[in-house]
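TICKET: design request
STATUS: open
ATTACHED STRUCTURE:
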């Protein structure tokens, strides 16, 4: 995107699919903690707004960086996502869907792989 390329529909679908379980998990946790639907929705709207501003700032800052710096930054971000999934989401998924957690995880990675191949 920094080089001026458009975002593919595959990337949009992949990002949406990867965020759905995270959003549902945290929204469910907040509801169980007694938070109102207004609070949960407001929090997610705030996060979306802050993320948009952070994306704009990141685009402005990183547009002048070398491909190596961008690749290293993406690698660190990917590692952070994997650490979050391993620490938070997998134990919670195993607690709720004990017998199917592994199968669901593999299906998610397979879906992401298939979408990446569809996008070229």
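STATUS: resolved
RESOLUTION: sequence designed for all positions
ATTACHED SEQUENCE:
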């Amino acid at each position: 995107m920094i080089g001026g390329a458009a975002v593919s529909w595959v990337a949009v679908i992949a990002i949406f699919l990867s965020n759905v379980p995270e959003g549902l998990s945290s929204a469910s946790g907040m509801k169980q903690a007694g938070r109102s639907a207004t609070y949960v929705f407001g929090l997610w709207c705030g996060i979306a707004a802050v993320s948009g501003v952070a994306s704009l700032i990141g685009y402005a800052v990183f547009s002048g960086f070398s491909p190596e710096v961008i690749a290293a930054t993406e690698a660190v971000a990917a590692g952070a996502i994997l650490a979050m999934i391993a620490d938070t989401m997998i134990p919670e998924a195993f607690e709720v869907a004990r017998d199917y957690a592994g199968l669901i995880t593999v299906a998610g990675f397979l879906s992401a792989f298939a979408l990446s191949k569809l996008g070229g």
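CLOSING REMARK: DSSP finds four helices and no strands in the chain. The mean pLDDT is 81.
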